[in-house]
Specification:
Mean pLDDT: 79
Number of helices: 6
Number of strands: 0
Distance between the termini: 81 Å
Helix content: 40-55%
Length: 123
């Protein structure tokens, strides 16, 4: 019985090693869906190309000014793109949904006022 267990484990280790070494040949053949991994843009011009810009949120001025920053926030881009794909909405609507979700997470109402019962506003 021990020989069978040893033989099976040795066979699986050899098989795993062979698959790991030859992964460059068989991995591109696998049908992976597109949503598994999408590379995020790393500059304002790439943000515009990937649809993360609109009339109300225009990044073209940053590109024309030669802005060398890395672009928009990585976590925000991931969340907005996920909302755009899952709910099939445009960039402005996805950005609004993302902002409202962040507001709710931080105990802020959709109107921008804190939900804290001790909050006092003089306006």
């Amino acid at each position: 019985m021990a020989y069978i267990l040893y033989s099976i484990s040795l066979f699986l280790m050899v098989l795993a090693t062979i698959l790991y070494v030859t992964r460059t040949r068989w991995l591109p053949v696998l049908p992976l869906p597109e949503y598994v991994y999408t590379r995020l843009p790393s500059s304002f011009s790439r943000d515009i190309e990937s649809g993360l810009s609109s009339g109300a949120f225009d990044l073209s001025a940053n590109v024309m000014a030669g802005d060398s920053r890395a672009g928009l926030d990585e976590q925000g881009k991931k969340a907005v793109q996920k909302i755009m794909k899952s709910r099939r909405v445009g960039f402005d609507e996805a950005r609004r949904i993302y902002t409202e979700q962040r507001f709710a997470k931080n105990n802020i109402g959709p109107d921008g006022l804190p939900r804290d019962p001790k909050f006092v506003s003089f306006s």
